[in-house]
Design goal:
This protein has nine helices and seven strands. By secondary structure, it is of the alpha/beta class. Strands 2-1-5-7-6 form a five-stranded mixed beta sheet, sandwiched between helices. The protein has a two-stranded antiparallel ribbon with strand order 3-4.
Length: about 250
């Protein structure tokens, strides 16, 4: 019921009417339904007959394999063999002898191994590029105060990995804020150079990162021109972001 309600909520997709974008990103709002489904699924699995247990265990093992190892960029040549191998483990567990404590122990060890392997793969893939791509993000972290910096973000980056988490630094010491305001429970960008400049000044930021991607509804935003008009100096840019320093000496 919760999942069905999610499908018709306003946040199931972004973008203008009839032209949804980032639908895959907003599937995160369906996660509460999955969390609520987990306990009853475990009860059903525990109280089912042997054949149903085999089927459910296989499906759940495959789902776990895909969720841990697939990701948005994993090649099928790596995912499919891993999923098949883990499905075989699930089948062996469901149909093997002896049952009871041994089977539960084997299942626990298998789940731990899958979680450990999947976690390692995901963390390695994430950390490999988190602080090095794009170059502007890596440079911003090099220039930021090691004890913590205040970093402003503007513009749009919908076609790339969001830079928010990376800009917080390896130990999450930095404060990262979007240059905008909340209106009707939605975070909106500044609408004029005056508002943009006031928010930058009020935030007392050390760095400004501006995304260059166009939005379908607002293809000609002028955050970079506004930043220069407010006295911010361009430090580095690539095809996706521009990095600015404030004009004043911050000591």
């Amino acid at each position: 019921a919760i999942f069905c309600a999610y499908l018709i909520t306003p946040f199931s997709a972004l973008g203008p009417p009839g032209d949804p974008i980032q639908v895959n990103v907003n599937t995160r709002y369906a996660v509460p339904a999955l969390l609520i489904a987990a306990p009853p699924t475990a009860v059903v699995l525990d109280r089912s007959g042997a054949r149903l247990q085999v089927g459910l265990a296989t499906v759940l093992t495959l789902a776990l394999a895909v969720s841990l190892l697939a990701g948005p960029e994993a090649p099928l040549a790596r995912v499919v063999p891993a999923a098949i191998a883990l499905a075989a483990v699930g089948l062996a567990w469901g149909s093997g002898r002896p049952r009871g404590a041994w089977r539960r122990s084997a299942l626990a060890l298998t789940a731990a191994a899958i979680a450990g392997l999947g976690g390692f793969v995901l963390s390695d893939r994430f950390l490999e590029r988190r602080y090095t791509e794009p170059p502007t993000v890596a440079e911003a972290l090099e220039l930021a105060d090691p004890g913590g910096a205040r970093i402003a973000i503007a513009g749009n980056w919908s076609a790339t990995t969001p830079p928010i988490l990376a800009m917080q630094g390896p130990r999450l010491d930095n404060v990262v804020e979007f240059v905008g305001s909340f209106e009707d429970d939605a975070l909106r960008a500044a609408s004029s150079v005056g508002e943009f400049e006031r928010r930058l000044e009020r935030g007392d930021y050390d760095l400004l990162l501006v995304g260059k991607a166009d939005l379908p509804t607002e293809p000609d935003r002028e955050e970079e021109a506004w930043a220069r008009a407010a006295g911010w100096k361009l430090v580095l840019e690539d095809t996706r972001f521009s990095l600015y320093f404030p004009a004043r000496d911050r000591g």
